[in-house]
Amino acid sequence: MADGNVTDYGPTNACSRSPKLPAPADAGVSRYSENNKNDDMTISYSSGILNSLISPEFTSFVKADIPDISSQVPQAHHWLGNFFLNSAFRGRFDTKLQQLVLGYLRRAHHAFNSFHDARSATFKYLEKGNPHEGHIRLYYDAIYMWENYVLQIYMAMDLYNAFSKPDKAFEKNDGSKEQRIYTIANQVKHVGHCVHSGQCKEEDTLPLLLINDGLSSFDTKVSFIEASDILIDIAKLADLLQDPSGFIEKVKDGSI
After folding, report:
1. 222 DSSP β-pair partners
2. pLDDT, tens digit, for every residue of 23-74?
3. Where does residue 91 rank: exposed (0-12), middle (13-18), buried (19+ CB within 10 A)?
4. Looking at residue 39, what is its pLDDT?
5. Cα(215)–Cα(217) distance, rounded to whole angstroms?
6. Distance between CA 103 and CA 111 in Å, rounded?
7. CB atoms closer than 10 angstroms to residue 241
8. Residues 175, 155, 169, 173, Cα dihedral to 10°
């Protein structure tokens, strides 16, 4: 390109799978190699090109220990239905609280689904093995689902703050796992501002990326264990809120 802003790596077919058109050495693509007698081909990309164009940690991300918490949250699939039935036949909160609690239960439900979708998508990506083969679509699928998870948590925390005053999900800059995941979600939401303000570095291609220990966003990190623990805490309150009358009785007798 002549404008000086875009690097020209040559013609668009420089990375063609045809062995007759080997990629230029500076494009970060290795020579083509046969996997079997049927002439199946694979391409191996350099760490430099993958980490600069996809994610700074792309080739370093090779493992993930993400717990399955389904057995610890058995009511998750019933929160919304139970809330409707209990509100209709047992009693409901005052109008404003009813609105906030419904929002919280929805976000808790979607966070639970998003967590397990993200877990499955991450394992599906990792099962491909060699990151240098550049399974980009599967990686971005996993990123999308983790972004959805942190955003659902973000909204659940905002709703909690709205109905639990003076209690809060966390104190400003307290360094807790709740504050850090909220920060990550906020950066996912406002990535344009992060770019223009200089909050992210030039190599930060994504507002949320996967590292072996968990999630990372512009130097803010949350481990997979912490992410699951946050969801478990949100679920515990959802278990109580799905029955408005029961919740009010427990508040009155001091059991919660």
Report:
1. 215
2. 444 445 443 333 444 444 678 899 999 999 999 999 999 999 999 999 999 9
3. middle
4. 42
5. 7
6. 12
7. 23
8. 30
3-state SS, the chain, equals CCCCCCCCCCCHHHHCCCCCCCCCHHHCECCCEECCCCCCEECCECHHHHHHHCCCCCCCCCCCCCCCCHHHCCCHHHHHHHHHHHHHHCCCCCHHHHHHHHHHHHHHHHHHHHHHHHHHHHHHHHCCCCHHHCCHHHHHHHHHHHHHHHHHHHHHHHHHHHHCCCCCCCCCCCCCHHHHHHHHHHHHHCHHHHHHHCCCCCCCCCCCEEECCEEEECCEEEEHHHHHHHHHHHHHHHHHHCCHHHHHHHHHCCCC
Domain residue spans in the chain?
Answer: 1-44, 62-252
In the block, residue with structure tokens 């909204």: 155
**Residue 10 amino acid letter:** G
Question: What's the whole-number mean pLDDT along residues 6-22?
Answer: 37
Tokens encoding 142: 């996993």
- Euclidean distance between CA atoms 219 and 161, whole angstroms: 26
